[in-house]
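Lab notebook page, bench 4
Experiment: in silico fold of construct C2
Operator: M.H.
Input chain length: 490 residues
Purpose: comparison with the prior construct
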Amino acid sequence: MKKFGHYLLLFSIPVWCISCQPKAASSANDASQPASPATPSFYVGADLSYTNELEDCGVKYTVDGVETDIFALFSQRGANMVRLRLWHNPTWTRYANFADVMRSASRVKSAGMSILLDLHYSDTWTDPEHNLVPAAWASVVGDTVALADSVYNYTFATLAAMQMDDVLPAAVQIGNETNNNILVADNSQLLPLDTRRNVALFNAGISAVNDFNRAHKKDVKTMLHVALADAEVLNWIAGVKAAGILDFDVISVSYYPQWQRYTPRELGALANAVFETYGIRLLVAETGHIWTRRWNDESHNLVSRMATGYPEVPCPQLQKDFLIEVKRAVRDNHGYGVLAWEPGWVSSSNATLWGVGSNWENVTFFDFNNELLRHGGIDFMNDDNGRVTFTVDMGAAGASAKGYIAGSFTDDGFGSWQIMPMRRVGTSDVFEFSTYLSHGQTIAYYYLSDSTWSARETVPDSLRRAGTDRSFTLAQGCDSIAINEKFGIQ
């Protein structure tokens, strides 16, 4: 994480052309059809490492006004993995230490989900700009053999302790966002890159997991993690391979529109290339998308950009669309899974290294009252969604008309509809807009010829189904549908 993607109910919508693609039969990579209860073939979920701290500060999550346990909520909505970060001995906080991780791990297991253990090998945050050796290992930071021995023993002992409490993780992340040098005495030593030293330390962690698996007849997966552009990921793997890295199971990446500017389609191509080249599966260990640019406290928000190609109109619906696109891209290309980062980190009185509150409340799955956003990002975790493409012929609106759409699905998260630009199809008068709706979801909507409310169409009486608006309900089982209409004309 840097700290500072003919089943229609025809009576529900009169249109002049509809085509519906029913949902395909589940494949081996379908998260809703795990290979076994213990080993899903594809993981979806979230990093919920802040949860205990936030709840201790008084945070209560609600759904339709009813308080809910966030771990149970995510499991009910389709999550099958939770990522938990572990710092070695953080003296500046009571959280993300071993006791806190065990507390969370028990909750994850009780909710029926798997654990990804994120070992930072530090007493604090690690990322491409920060990767300090734990204070307990500072005396051997210059001795790679001794430091690797510390990494091995710590990794093995952590797994053994989790095994004793029956909360063994499904996978272990050997370091966090390890683009540059790891376990350094000072962050000025992150570069120049010493790949051979890094690999010696990575190998110690991998060996510890492998030896634990052999000793206990387990199959905990090994994972390395970077935050790089798509092309750089392959180069990074090639570099550690050349330096003698032991075999590992998964390459995990951080993937945020704010920093990694490639598209979900390009992410899918990366997942495929990694698998075809190295036989390694890809996990998006961290991702997220804003649903608003507003703030709920005085703590600086880290993310403000929309994903490449997305309208500059943040809302819960586009947050959901992005995450679904990311999941489909990874799953369709041999991927291991997709996890959202800290979608429960709402604003509260918790004190971080950067102040009181949240740097992330505009990326969570909850509104500013900690109420679950309706049809927001959490919906990406299940497959109860279908892609809906609204296509409108704007010819009746005049030669200068453009295409826009507004509806209940463009709500800004605070109760107000927003106007979304549509994409012109070639040089025609036809415009389109695609989004993912939930099966059974009914929306009201209409088209506009410009980006102002006065440019809305007058929907013919015969097409009105929601007051003066059009209406559409996505049928159960429909994976994709195209709706073709004319501006203000039946």
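Observations: The chain has a mean pLDDT of 92. Residues 120 and 175 are 5 Å apart (CA to CA).
Next step: discuss at group meeting.
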